[in-house]
Design a protein that fits this description.
The chain is built from 29 helices and 29 strands. With 892 residues, it is an alpha/beta fold. It is elongated and about 110 Å long.
Length: 892
């Protein structure tokens, strides 16, 4: 496991986090909350993508659960009736594989103990190990409904699964048929098309001669090209393109070939599927082992011969080849063709091969009788609700991916040859032939009274999990009259990964539209895939994996949560950046330190409304008002990276670095008592609002501080506190105050930067000159004492006509120039070099924007506000370049 970073601190995060988590849980905030304020009558529900009961928390879970918790916590604070439904998936193949291995270690084979005892072993394994991932989710601070944990094989959920199967069977949506399926010979079960994983492999293309039964036009054999020579044992035809002139005479003559090794006569026929340009233009057709061959065989009426058993060994009836594995049979068939003089040539050929998503064995296309869902009647409505905007995808581009997947969706194989799972509720009477799908089960035939047997197969795990949004809320017993569904359906948000958009998201929409008549959720967030720092998928073999549980131990749940969301953009994948986790841990410490400063300076504090008596007060409140509006907009668009950027920038750069700095003199001993109290109230108010905004992402540190805040009601918890109101704060927006303090910060920052760059002590007073336009100069002049104090200016001149002093450095701000006099302290040759380097950088940046804005394609496609933003940036760069050139000419 890759180390996240070496820069850790000795701090027991869990010891501080657990009591807060228990306080939230005990107060009932994890169950459906009652709601308050303007949204009191509205519900906000999220269903967690149920992790496998076999699973442990990985980085994908950590990111997705952080996203969901941020959404549900914000909704709770906004007054919605919230509930985040928690549960786990029984994970058919995964669990059966785990329990098989567990029993094997004890010398037990599941076939020896039988189905019933094996299922008992699975249930026992689930009780012992299945709660591990739920405990890990709790350790993140996720505010799920732990008191009503769902499970896809609970009695209630099982009844829902049986009901849907029976309804679909009786409506003709579920049917049984003999079709080609993707068969895993290791798991010995069918695998759905969209569960198959394709991997590129280096292979070969074997050119084999098939002798004609009777020569045609002087030709006594044809050559087929194949990547799987072993399957020729099951060939029942040879197909050519009807447009291929080379073989028209063979088709017209009704030619047949004598299949080598097995001496089977098979026809040569025409089919439009064949690509005449590939290989020799002749395609061997094995209807039982290739879906395309199956389709051609159906059109041509060819027999279907299954040559492999369930473990992909050649079945009886093929002489020495019987009992061979696929690999052994391939080698033996090629050797026999070579011996017979029928192996024409072998070419290298790279191709894509299907593998089992669970065990990674090569899948075998296999003719098998299975249960299927006819999707044609389901997918139309599932497409319409997305096309109409009833369901919205974030980012928006995933809408088309979803629609394309639906458009290409074929009937879904839902039966699995496993023991652990939902046994198909189909019953058969071998005495009289009665058969039916029955929800409550049946032991005796209703027609003749003889004993009946239940279908031995189980349903695909995705069949049950597609019902998750409504089967977790009482649908099985009461339908849409179930109280939870009547009041709180559809749900509001589904957050999930792109790789199960078809497997799960689309199927939830299809089943919900059929079963409830409503969409299952309104918004779908497709979060990025978390990759290793090297940009590759995380895995043990690569050594690039990161354990979220270890991250929480080292950096706290808050540090991990904020650090993960910092890395979220609109991209499909994100490279894990350990430095973001570390900086987020440091940010949590910054929040604690800022709160400690405020708390330590509350002597004589009395609760009261904010009082904006200084430009700094007006500035921070204006910035806070804008922050709330911007954070709301980013949250509403599910732009979580932008949310963290906004919060980090305000709290660290504006509140901590500047407003607290501005406040120190007002809080000092001997300061005016009334102004001190006003400053205290303002600090408390801004800190309180910031904690509320930070809480959805950093719940622990914010709740810990909130408990120490003055004026908090007895027993009040931040998790249930009211979210800041952008409308209520809008009156604080003050353009002049923002402009004034922006210039104060730039001027003070410029002087401090000059000191730092040239190694001049902050204790050394330096003359400072600020050149600004008349309006800006007037605003800044009113704060001259503050600028002089914070910059330790020996003298301060501000004006529109201010001249650059000799031997001074210049810093260009937005519309201002700050000159710091360094006479006797600086090497001006170095200063000239610095300005030249800065000019070079500004010139490159300006050239980039000039090129972009002269591109007709960009101007035609980009949004008007983007174009205007870029033009403003270019104008600012051009202005700075002009002023920089002036300064360099003065130094020359």
């Amino acid at each position: 496991m890759a180390e996240s970073t070496e820069k850790k601190i000795d701090y027991d995060f869990a010891a501080h986090e657990k009591p807060l988590f228990e306080a939230w849980k005990d107060a009932g905030y994890f169950q459906r909350t009652p709601g308050f304020g303007e949204h009191a009558g509205e519900s906000y529900t999220i269903v967690i993508p149920p992790p496998n009961v076999t699973g442990v928390l990985h980085m994908g879970h950590a990111l997705n659960d952080t996203i969901q918790d941020a959404c549900i916590r914000r909704a709770r604070m906004r007054g919605y009736q919230t509930r985040w439904i928690l549960g786990t998936d029984h994970a058919g193949i995964a669990t059966q594989t785990k329990v098989d291995k567990h029993l094997a270690e004890q010398g037990i084979n599941r076939r020896e103990i039988g189905r019933e005892k094996f299922i008992e072993a699975c249930q026992e394994w689930r009780r012992d190990y299945g709660g591990r991932i739920v405990h890990q989710i709790a350790s993140m601070g996720c505010s799920c409904d732990y008191d009503d944990e769902q499970f896809t094989m609970s009695p209630e959920f099982s009844r829902a699964v049986r009901k849907v199967f029976c309804d679909w069977y009786h409506d003709g949506i579920v049917y049984r048929g003999k079709r080609i399926v993707n068969w895993c010979p290791n798991c010995t079960t069918a695998i759905a098309d969209d569960e198959a994983e394709y991997e590129d492999e280096h292979g070969h293309l074997w050119h084999l001669r098939y002798p004609l039964v009777e020569p045609v036009g002087g030709r006594d054999y044809i050559v087929v090209a194949t990547t799987r020579p072993e399957t020729m044992l099951g060939d029942t035809g040879v197909a050519v393109s009807p447009s291929d002139e080379r073989y028209k005479d063979l088709v017209a003559a009704g030619a047949k070939v004598k299949l080598p090794i097995v001496d089977r006569e098979i026809p040569v026929f025409a089919d439009f599927y064949v690509d005449a340009s590939f290989g020799t233009g002749c395609v061997k057709v094995t209807p039982a082992h290739d879906p395309n061959d199956f389709a051609m065989g159906e059109r041509a009426g060819l027999p279907k011969i299954n040559i492999f058993d369930e473990t992909a060994h050649v079945v009886e009836g093929f002489g020495a080849f019987s009992g061979m594995s696929r690999e052994e049979a391939r080698e033996a068939v090629v050797a026999e063709f070579d011996r017979l003089g029928l192996l024409e040539r072998v070419e290298d050929h790279d191709h894509s091969v299907m593998h089992c998503y669970r065990c990674h064995s090569t899948l075998e296309p296999w003719l098998s009788e299975q249960w299927f869902v006819a999707v044609e009647g389901l997918k139309k409505r599932a497409a319409e609700v997305v096309e109409s905007g009833e369901i919205t995808f974030y980012p928006e581009r995933w809408k088309q991916v979803y629609l394309d997947w639906l458009a290409n969706l074929k009937d879904w194989c839902i039966s699995r040859q496993l023991w652990w799972g939902h046994q198909i509720p189909m019953y058969y009477c071998d005495s009289c032939g009665w058969q039916d799908a029955v929800v409550d089960g049946v032991e005796a035939c209703p027609t003749c009274g003889a004993p009946v047997r239940q279908d031995e197969d189980v349903l695909d795990t995705w069949f049950s999990s597609q019902l998750w949004p409504f089967a977790t809320q009482g649908w099985a017993d009461e339908g849409m009259d179930a109280p939870d569904l009547a009041a709180h359906y559809p749900t509001q948000v589904l957050s999930t990964a792109r790789d199960i958009m078809g497997l799960w998201v689309a199927r939830m929409v299809m089943s919900s539209m059929y079963c409830t008549g409503e969409i299952p959720f309104e918004h779908v967030i497709i979060h990025p895939t978390v990759m290793g720092a090297d940009g590759k998928p995380m895995s043990k073999s690569r050594g690039n994996g990161v354990d979220p549980v270890k991250l929480m131990e080292d950096y706290g749940a808050d540090g991990m949560r904020f650090g993960l969301l910092m890395q979220v953009t609109g991209a499909q994948a994100m490279r894990f950046d350990a430095q973001k986790i570390e900086s987020s841990r440091n940010f949590a410490n910054k929040i604690r330190n800022a709160a400690r400063f405020v708390m330590m300076n509350l002597d004589g504090y009395k609760s009261g409304s904010p009082e904006l008596s200084t430009a700094a007060d007006k500035w921070i409140f204006s910035r806070l008002a804008r922050l709330v509006s911007d954070v709301d907009a980013a949250f509403d668009a599910y732009e979580f990276g932008e949310v963290t950027r906004l919060l980090y920038g305000f709290f660290w750069n504006e509140f901590c670095d500047w407003y607290i700095e501005f406040s120190k003199a007002r809080l000092a001993a001997g300061a005016d008592a009334a102004d001190r109290l006003a400053c205290q109230r303002n600090l408390v108010f801004v800190l309180d609002q910031a904690l509320r905004l930070l809480h959805p992402i950093m719940p622990f540190v914010t709740e810990e501080i909130f408990q120490q805040m003055p004026g908090r009601a007895e027993g009040e918890l931040l998790i249930g506190a009211e979210w800041p109101s952008a409308a209520a704060l809008a009156g604080y927006v003050d353009e002049d105050a923002e402009r004034t303090c922006a210039m104060v910060c730039e001027a003070v920052g410029a002087v401090r930067s000059a000191r730092s760059r040239y190694g001049i002590s902050p204790k050394v007073a330096l003359p400072v000159v600020v050149k600004a336009g008349e309006q800006d100069a007037a605003l800044l002049e009113a704060q001259a004492a503050l600028v002089a104090s914070l910059s330790n200016a020996a003298s301060l001149e501000i004006g529109a006509e201010a001249a650059k002093p000799a031997e001074s450095t210049v810093t260009l701000g937005s519309g201002i120039e700050v000159y710091t006099c360094l006479s006797g302290h600086v090497d001006f040759d170095a200063e000239r070099a610095r300005l030249a380097k800065e000019r070079e950088k500004l010139a490159k940046d300006a050239a980039k924007f000039e090129k972009k804005l002269s591109n007709p394609g960009f101007l035609a496609k980009a949004a008007p506000e983007i174009i205007e933003k870029d033009r403003a940036k270019l104008a600012d760069l051009t202005d700075k370049l002009a002023r920089l050139n002036e300064q360099l000419s003065e130094l020359a």
